[in-house]
Write a structure and sequence with these properties.
Order of helices and strands: HHHEHHEEHEHEHEEHEHE
CATH class: Alpha Beta
Distance between the termini: 21 Å
Oligomer: single chain
Structural class: alpha/beta
Radius of gyration: 19 Å
Number of strands: 9
Strand content: 15-25%
Length: about 375
């Protein structure tokens, strides 16, 4: 497949650590782990009770949603300690979790869970969409959907294709914006994959030196479809304290005002086109990527998912979920699983039951 020569450097949604080789740059390290050093952390032991009941919504969480889960055999003491800590923090947060606005008719969340495959077909390193042939990839997605359905039968699972549609670049390109806009033909092909599974389609923006105000209006022709939703990636938003830097040289930053611009744009589209509510996925694996999440304002027409997309061993991922999703609640939560980067040190991939033990239970699951 042909593509421009300045395309291949920045990796979409891929953890910065996947580019730099330093997972600690991507996933959270909690205060207790950094004080004494991660290797000296006291293990809380394996949590014994099985997860029960379906978390239908972070906003609708009840005190009964306080069950713990069990790690699979072979997890480390650090994994067990962080796992227990994340569950405790989630249980503590549930009673005061933001209720958010009542969703408009036709909303997907909280009644369903989304399991998405992520990437861009031009790059094998950006995720499964480019790593495997079409039918192999779609068959793999079917299997993941089946696993999540079996793990939580009370929450229907919808498959999704999550395409990085505006891709951050390692070179400025003809217009100096350090991003490439995907061709309509490729976007339509990925959309067709989603439709073939009766699933959802996400278009994702890595703006580089461009802005959401420049990129999002160009995607409204896709978002006018009722089954198309949006992702935005602060990692590759090179503004504010990252102004002028090359994408992936440092982790980028968005403010709540940027997220709210996307929300208001989608809200207006839903109202004008009489569409069901849209979902907005915001990637976040560091506090400073969105330093003011308390100012993000979901609407009845736009549901917001804060997606923990850090990679590394299980304990780092549990810590990240606790520190960047639970500690800074917005509305709904997501969790990203990396087929390769999460298993670099021979850790088994996190299972649906392990992730479902977290509180609130993530309703958006993304595989890269």
């Amino acid at each position: 497949m042909k593509f421009s020569s300045f395309f291949v450097v920045a990796l979409a949604g891929c953890a910065l650590a996947a580019c730099s080789g330093h997972p600690d740059a991507k996933a959270s390290v909690s205060a207790d782990s950094t004080k004494a050093g991660a290797a000296t952390r006291t293990a809380a032991g394996e949590v014994s009770a099985n997860a029960d009941g379906a978390q239908k919504s972070a906003a609708a969480a009840t005190p009964s949603d306080t069950s713990t889960g069990k790690l699979i055999a072979g997890r480390s003491k650090m994994d067990a300690s962080s796992f227990a800590s994340a569950i405790r923090a989630g249980n503590k947060a549930l009673p005061t979790w933001p209720k958010g606005p009542t969703p408009a008719a036709g909303a997907i969340l909280p009644g369903k869970r989304i399991v998405a495959y992520y990437g861009n077909p031009h790059s094998k390193k950006m995720g499964v969409l480019g790593e495997y042939p079409e039918q192999t990839m779609l068959s793999m997605l079917d299997k993941e959907v089946a696993k999540w359905t079996a793990a939580d039968p009370s929450t229907p699972v919808i498959p999704a294709i999550h395409l990085v549609t505006v891709v951050a670049q390692g070179a400025p390109g003809p217009d100096g914006m350090w991003r490439r806009r995907e061709a309509d033909k490729m976007v339509q092909q990925a959309y067709n994959w989603a439709k073939s599974k009766k699933g959802l389609f996400f278009v994702d923006i890595q703006a580089g030196h461009s802005t959401l105000q420049q990129e999002l209006p160009l995607l409204l022709k896709w978002l006018e479809n009722p089954d198309v939703h949006l992702g935005i990636d602060p990692e590759f938003y090179m503004h504010y304290k990252r102004e002028g830097l090359r994408p992936s040289s440092k982790v980028g930053q968005m403010m709540a005002s940027d997220v709210n611009y996307a929300i208001q744009t989608l809200d207006k589209l839903v109202a004008e086109k009489n569409l069901p509510p849209k979902i907005l996925v915001v990637h976040r694996f560091r506090r400073d990527m969105v330093p003011d999440p308390e100012n993000i304002k979901p609407t009845p027409r736009v549901q917001v998912v804060m997606d923990m997309d850090g990679w590394g061993p299980p304990w780092l991922k549990f810590d990240s979920y606790r520190d960047y999703e639970v500690a800074a609640p917005v509305q709904f939560t997501g969790f990203k699983i990396f087929y390769h980067n999460d298993t670099r040190k021979n850790d088994a991939l996190l299972t649906p039951l392990e992730v479902l033990a977290l509180r609130p239970r993530p309703l958006y699951i993304q595989y890269q």
